[in-house]
Specification:
Layout lengths: L2 H8 L13 H9 L3 H5 L5 H15 L3 E3 L13 E3 L7 E4 L13 H5 L2 H16 L4 E3 L1
Parallel strand pairs: 1-4
Antiparallel strand pairs: 2-3
Length: 137
């Protein structure tokens, strides 16, 4: 589904695709004037994420923000990403490229990181910026 189809679907206008979930923060960077690469340049930037989520909500007229707490520091598991200025992050090397790596993984490798803490902080900031929004994370 194209970004235009996604926006049309959200606005309940005619569209030609099946709706899919897009990352609010990545889509919102367009409306906030933030490069996606800035948000991930030194880890995960909670303030920039919250500003872009807030911008997408205002631009699209949503009454709610749906977040995914599935966000985790996959780089802790060997994933490598490229962060292009006007696009979603692209996985260049997947986590667990070698399936045997899973034997040495702990769930804490994913969640006990600054990245997850910043993600949680981002939604706290969204609550501050958008007090009338319903937030599901």
């Amino acid at each position: 589904m194209s970004k235009d189809d996604f926006i049309s679907c959200i606005r309940r206008q005619e569209h030609s695709g099946i709706p899919t979930f897009l990352l609010d923060s990545s889509l919102g960077t367009v409306y906030a004037g933030i490069d996606v690469s800035e948000m991930y340049q030194y880890g995960f930037a909670a303030e920039l994420s919250a500003k872009s989520i807030s911008a997408s909500r205002r631009a699209l007229g949503h009454d709610a923000v749906i977040g995914s707490m599935m966000f985790a520091d996959y780089e802790a598991l060997g994933e490598e990403c490229e962060y292009y200025p006007d696009n979603v992050p692209a996985v260049m090397k997947p986590a667990f490229e070698d399936p045997l790596d899973m034997e040495y993984c702990s769930p804490y490798d994913l969640i006990d990181t600054d990245t997850m803490n910043e993600c949680i902080r981002s939604y706290g900031l969204v609550r501050k910026y958008e007090p009338d929004a319903a937030i599901a994370a």
